[in-house]
Amino acid sequence: MSKKWQITVPGSTANLGPGFDSIGLSLSLYLNLTVSISDKWEIIHLSDHLPQNIVIENHLIYEIASETAARFNKELPPCRIEMKSELPFARGLGSSAAAIVAAVELANLVCQLNLSTQDKLNITSQFEGHPDNATASVLGGLTISAMDDFGHVDTIHVQDLEVSFVVFIPNVELKTSDARKVLPEKFDRHYAVHASANANMLAASFISKDYERVGYYMESDLFHEPFRAKLIPFFDEIRNAAKNAGAYGTALSGAGPTVISIIPTAIEEAFISKMKELFPSLEIILTKADDQGISVTEVIEDVLA
């Protein structure tokens, strides 16, 4: 008998305006790994936008899985991994966080670590450096999180969001490290209080499922969007057009360059049609919040001797 695992991880968007490094939302766009223990390492990319020429030792999945195993004094056995992704790299849709979550789960399975959900939240957020995308990919739904100085993550989990989301993906990459370079090192007290209040109201609006308020506070960020907007193609044009077409609100997805709108489900078809007409150079995708988070399916295969 040969054992395989299928690991499915949702992508995510972070911040949603002022929820900087704290609020994450899983999306129904996925990273899929088919994993089996082997006699040598193989990572096979099956999606066109994933690189074909890779060095195993430099691959994020290998690096994170190996380090996770080492944390528990385990040695990661060689694996064959077939990898498919609907998440373009460096576009603000949580591709790195999804890979980290998948890699931690891979180590959990093949090394029999028996990690709890809290363990996974802590470890993935520690690797990511902040808990927004990672917690959303682990749990699904919307997550509002904090990570303390010891790497422990506390999360409020909101599910069953009764809205749709539309992502506008330009054909350019923007690394989070580059997007952070344009941010101020400090804010004065009055500015910080205002920015923090907007973040609090965004979180409260999501919890109460007041989507009109969600949209308003998504567009009220003071922490990062005023400084990053100049890096994002069509940002102001998308926000204005989306509002005119009935969106509750529009914000950067993570650090960008993808832009995300929250819309009433009832206007999906008309909204997408209008946006594709106005922005033909962008990839525009209608999606929902994923409510499951990471999932693992074990596949047992008969192997003939």
From TrEMBL:
Its main location: cytoplasm. It is found in: Cytoplasm. Pathway: Amino-acid biosynthesis; L-threonine biosynthesis; L-threonine from L-aspartate: step 4/5. ATP binds at residues 88-98. One of its GO terms (cellular component) is cytoplasm. Residues 60-141 form the GHMP kinase N-terminal domain. Pfam families: GHMP_kinases_C (PF08544), GHMP_kinases_N (PF00288). Residues 204-279 form the GHMP kinase C-terminal domain. One of its GO terms (molecular function) is ATP binding. It comes from the Bacteria. Gene3D superfamilies: 3.30.230.10, GHMP kinase, C-terminal domain. One of its GO terms (biological process) is threonine biosynthetic process. It catalyses: L-homoserine + ATP = O-phospho-L-homoserine + ADP + H(+). Its EC number is 2.7.1.39. Keywords: Amino-acid biosynthesis, ATP-binding, Cytoplasm, Kinase, Nucleotide-binding, Threonine biosynthesis, Transferase. Belongs to the GHMP kinase family. Homoserine kinase subfamily. Catalyzes the ATP-dependent phosphorylation of L-homoserine to L-homoserine phosphate. PANTHER family: HOMOSERINE KINASE, HOMOSERINE/4-DIPHOSPHOCYTIDYL-2-C-METHYL-D-ERYTHRITOL KINASE. This is Homoserine kinase. The gene is thrB.
